[in-house]
Amino acid sequence: MTKVKETMKAVGLYKYLPIDHQESLIDVELEKPVPTGKDLLVKVQAISVNPVDYKVRSPKDRVESVPKVLGWDVAGVVEQVGPDVTLFKPGDEVYYAGSITRPGGNSEFHLVDERIVGKKPSTLDFAQAAALPLTTITAWESLYDRLGVSKNQADNTGKTILIIGAAGGVGSIATQLSKYSGLTVIGTASRPESADWVKGLGADHVINHFEAFLPQLKAVGIEQVDYILCLNSTEKHWANMAEAIAPQGKICSIVETDELLNLTLLKNKSVTFVWELMFTRSTYQTPDMIEQHKLLDEVARLVDEGVIRTTTSETLTPINAANLRKAHALLETGRTVGKVVLEGF
């Protein structure tokens, strides 16, 4: 007797279309996957959207033969585990961002390598937890792995960080982690509501990213900054960053650019420039992949201790194509504060 294959609901795409097109994201039925190796099969409870979602979905001349599923922020419950899994068991509540090289999490069930998964913060519900993984990994790796910020508060006394785009998803976490690490935090924001959000997360000062940085920094008594984390338009802020960074300072950006950057602007100050992409470890299966599991567990502890708070700003329900199109459209405005989350199939 032939076993009937189980199916699941998902949201995917065949064509890469503008978000106002009804077929840009569609509801589909897919075969329910089976975990092998180090994979967990997770029953998805909530998801969140990030700029990577609409960048992957952006219009292009390509048609998929099977639905492409997006989504790189998940909170859910482990349903089954592969034979090589050692970190989790069925019933565990988890949160993670997943891998850009595999199907995303906008589906009822999702496969993910256990080495990039963390235990969900116990004090958060699934929607609140789903807002965290991608932005948390990006902020953590930017600060501690790329910029080399010490986790010891005493080491950071008198040191400053400028976070460009501090009100967004990554900026909201980076602001909190920077403050927790003992840095003086200057965040950029351009509207009263985003400035209030950044101050509420612990920023010591807020400046406007549409104006020259250095005069604004000097106005609050800061001559230069030790670290810069750029979360918005690398090329647009390049000259401003080169001017504001301290000699031997470090700049990290997460935003790709199509324009050439004049690295010579950094030479006389011996400034370090480094990129951050949180998918690097999973894409290249680096030997230290498990560091994402460890950092997600550490952040869960900080959340449960009240040090870090979730950055959910809007929750839509249920998880379906119509609501995901709405979420993508919101993100594409570039004016969202915090994270947009979807909950429940």
UniProtKB/TrEMBL annotation:
<keyword id="KW-0963">Cytoplasm</keyword>
<dbReference type="InterPro" id="IPR020843">
    <property type="entry name" value="ER"/>
</dbReference>
<dbReference type="Pfam" id="PF08240">
    <property type="entry name" value="ADH_N"/>
</dbReference>
<feature type="domain" description="Enoyl reductase (ER)">
    <location>
        <begin position="23"/>
        <end position="342"/>
    </location>
</feature>
<keyword id="KW-0560">Oxidoreductase</keyword>
<dbReference type="GO" id="GO:0003723">
    <property type="term" value="F:RNA binding"/>
</dbReference>
<keyword id="KW-0862">Zinc</keyword>
<dbReference type="InterPro" id="IPR002364">
    <property type="entry name" value="Quin_OxRdtase/zeta-crystal_CS"/>
</dbReference>
<dbReference type="Pfam" id="PF13602">
    <property type="entry name" value="ADH_zinc_N_2"/>
</dbReference>
<dbReference type="GO" id="GO:0008270">
    <property type="term" value="F:zinc ion binding"/>
</dbReference>
<dbReference type="GO" id="GO:0016491">
    <property type="term" value="F:oxidoreductase activity"/>
</dbReference>
<dbReference type="InterPro" id="IPR051603">
    <property type="entry name" value="Zinc-ADH_QOR/CCCR"/>
</dbReference>
<keyword id="KW-0521">NADP</keyword>
<dbReference type="InterPro" id="IPR011032">
    <property type="entry name" value="GroES-like_sf"/>
</dbReference>
<dbReference type="GO" id="GO:0005737">
    <property type="term" value="C:cytoplasm"/>
</dbReference>
<dbReference type="InterPro" id="IPR036291">
    <property type="entry name" value="NAD(P)-bd_dom_sf"/>
</dbReference>
<dbReference type="InterPro" id="IPR014182">
    <property type="entry name" value="ADH_Zn_typ-1"/>
</dbReference>
<comment type="similarity">
    <text>Belongs to the zinc-containing alcohol dehydrogenase family. Quinone oxidoreductase subfamily.</text>
</comment>
<comment type="subunit">
    <text>Homotetramer.</text>
</comment>
<dbReference type="InterPro" id="IPR013154">
    <property type="entry name" value="ADH-like_N"/>
</dbReference>
<protein>
    <recommendedName>
        <fullName>Zinc-type alcohol dehydrogenase-like protein</fullName>
    </recommendedName>
</protein>
<keyword id="KW-0694">RNA-binding</keyword>
<keyword id="KW-0479">Metal-binding</keyword>
